[in-house]
């Protein structure tokens, strides 16, 4: 039985993802680190860290991530374990709990999202983060330079949702999101078919085969695919094959005939026609031009 799905074009996928994210603020605080200081900082809840000044490295899971002043590191499922300052640094850390509607979307995120130069991309929101440093005090913080105001918890909670949404949007716009991430957000069923096409571009895929992968009926799949991707499955497959063909012709050095065979074409001529339509040049001519442009200048 095919799943009943609302039609959501891919250009609306980010809106859908952001709309599903909802957070409840736990705490926020500013921490000063001296040059070279290394501190264990286990954080099991979602949060983000904004490097207000200096340089630092943060370990999320087993991965070390380098930050410079103005960068933000978002860890949507927690997992921050250690902070290591490069030069003297100030870090504003905000932790929060994910509300129930966020759970499904959170599974689509990597363990850490780094947005570099956030203070340049979103200067007003960077100032909001600076102002959040004392919305909720850490349990271990004793020095209070500015008393907390009534209503800070609510106000900063709303700010948190806005800032995280901006972080995710900037992460997508900077091209940091994994390949086809928005398709996964928009429709996990169609994304299965897209992943299958990219994994085996040389397979003789039929619409029925792809519909089976997506766990949908053939007619529902074809309509849904075109709505989401903006192309028919056959047209999209051709594009995937051409991109794979470029890789095989250049980096792997396959002949035109071997490339055609690897990508499921019955003849070299059929592959060459499709390649010319896609690039404007025959495969051999295109490869020679690429080789020419990659030669270092004398």
UniProtKB/TrEMBL annotation:
Pfam families listed in its UniProt record: HTH_18
Keywords recorded for this protein, A-Z: DNA-binding, Transcription, Transcription regulation
Presence of keyword DNA-binding: yes
Superkingdom of the organism of origin: Bacteria
Domain HTH araC/xylS-type: 191-289
Cross-referenced SUPFAM superfamilies: Homeodomain-like, RmlC-like cupins
Keyword match rRNA processing: no
Gene Ontology terms, MF aspect: DNA-binding transcription factor activity; sequence-specific DNA binding
Protein name: AraC family transcriptional regulator
Organism expressing this protein natively: Mycetocola lacteus
Lineage per the UniProt record: Bacteria, Bacillati, Actinomycetota, Actinomycetes, Micrococcales
